[in-house]
Design a protein that fits this description.
Strands 4-3-2-1-5 form a five-stranded parallel sheet, sandwiched between helices. Helix 1 crosses helix 2 and helix 2 runs parallel beside helix 3. By secondary structure, the protein is an alpha/beta fold. The longest helix has 16 residues.
């Protein structure tokens, strides 16, 4: 069952991510609109699994609103990387929705997590912050939570 905090987080993510799409036309009032059929890539850098849950919910909401999601990547950083295996069901659900899960190599090193310990399909990058910068340069709409 979703808590109020999780619902609010999902709502806030959808409010923050959707209006910030810079590759879309800007309306006369200065607001950006996403037009159905226009593909957009998204990325989130998160530090806890409630934010990953919010990403899954956001993908559902965007899909329900007929938004054409291109790539959607979530980069996991920080000490919660140590709990990655206890959240394998959530990671699998995210992957089934088309979300790419990436682990921050710096966080893994800091907390002594070996790449072989990660759930199947989780990618590793050397530095999660650099990854989010790279995705921004590629035109992804990004958010860090």
């Amino acid at each position: 069952m979703f808590t109020i905090k999780q619902i609010c987080t999902a709502f806030l993510l959808s409010v923050i991510i959707v209006p910030g799409v810079s590759s879309q036309p800007v309306e006369p009032n200065g607001q950006t609109r996403i037009h159905p059929g226009t593909e957009q890539d998204y990325a989130m850098l998160v530090r806890n699994y409630n934010h990953l849950r919010a990403a899954v919910k956001t993908v559902d909401m965007l899909s329900d609103d007929n938004h054409n999601i291109g790539n959607f990547e979530v980069i996991l950083c920080g000490n919660k990387i140590t709990q990655i295996n206890s959240n394998e069901d959530l990671i699998n659900e995210a992957q089934q929705k088309g979300i790419t899960i990436t682990a921050c190599g710096m966080s893994m090193n800091k907390f002594s997590i070996d790449e072989s310990e990660l759930p199947d399909g989780v990618q590793v990058v050397q530095n999660g912050l650099i990854r989010i910068f790279d995705l921004q340069e590629k035109g992804y709409q990004t958010i860090t939570l």
